Amino acid sequence: MAIAVAAIKTAEDLLVATFQLGGGRFAIDTNHIQEVVMTGDLTPVRHAPAYVAGIRNLRGRIITVIDLQVRLGLGRVQCDPANRILIVDWMGEPVGVLVDRVADTITMSPDELQPAPSSLHWVQVQNLLGVFRNGERLVALLDPAPVLDPVDRTEPQLELEG
User: Please, are residues 81 and 131 in contact by the beta-carbon 8 Å criterion?
Assistant: First the structure.
């Protein structure tokens, strides 16, 4: 994560989309977001990892929708009309990221980004680039790579000696 924070700190200002997830405020670089859509009908997928909320038909394209709250080890997104899906490009494929509510789009300076507190759950720390202040609120900036990677990181991986 230190490498990612260093890379961001050398970049220009970032335009980030902020959103609610559980009781917290999170953000993601808008360069990764293709669009924001209403939840619509999600079709469950049998034998999919717990973080997969389902699949959705989006104008003729079938996309996998990830429950970001599950992915971060924070429970499940509660069904609500304010729920939204961020359509994110992951390796040339659109993936939906289910969130409680989209808040706003803001510009942040990379100098504002601080490392995530080490006291957070390891699942959250490995998925964050850092934390910054937006007014009186703290906002956690997501690292899309580990969040969207299909490897399930909600449980610690044990290394086996061979």
Answer: no
Closest CA to 9 of 112, 144, 140: 112
Structure confidence at residue 159 as a pLDDT band (50, 70, 90) = very low
pTM (2 d.p.): 0.81
> Domain map of the chain by residue range?
2-147
Q: How many CB atoms lie within 10 A of CB 93?
A: 11
Residue 75: count other Cβ atoms within 10 Å of its Cβ: 11
Fold assignment, 2-147 = OB fold (Dihydrolipoamide Acetyltransferase, E2P) (2.40.50)
pLDDT digits (tens, 9 = 90+) for 6-26: 445 456 888 999 999 988 899
Phi, psi of 82 (to 5 degrees): -80, -10
Mean pLDDT of the chain: 83
